[in-house]
Write a structure and sequence with these properties.
about 120 residues, globular, 5 helices, two-stranded parallel ribbon
Length: about 120
């Protein structure tokens, strides 16, 4: 449903007066080239309006103009949520983490750099 909404939004982008679009995991269930295509379309939509996309896909994250990281933590029974705008180096590290998982490797950092350079 999210990808259908994305496709319709791309087709109607010029005719719509909507200034902000929000997509929650429009890339769910896809990866690789399809995820990159989703990221490219979100980026294209972002040329004319504000687009907020929630994703776990490194390909989609790399296509963004800006990236934020949302994290939850618990301390003394209280849950806290933090939102951080990522600087370029932190952004590459976050995309590397998305690619590699718990242990970020040199190869994952290099792949993240290539994703960001190609976006």
């Amino acid at each position: 449903m999210a990808r259908l909404s994305l496709a319709i939004s791309v087709c109607l982008a010029r005719a719509s007066s909507c200034e902000t679009l929000v997509f929650d995991e429009a890339d769910v269930g896809v990866g690789g080239a399809v995820a990159a295509a989703v990221g490219e379309r979100l980026s294209r939509l972002g040329q004319d309006r504000q687009v907020l996309a929630i994703t776990h896909s490194p390909q989609v994250a790399a296509a963004a103009a800006r990236q934020v990281r949302v994290a939850k933590s618990e301390s003394r029974g209280k849950v806290r949520t933090s939102v951080d705008v990522l600087a370029p180096k932190a952004r590459q590290e976050e995309i590397a983490r998305m690619l590699a998982g718990a242990e970020v490797t040199r190869e994952a950092r290099a792949a993240a750099g290539r994703l960001l350079a190609g976006a």
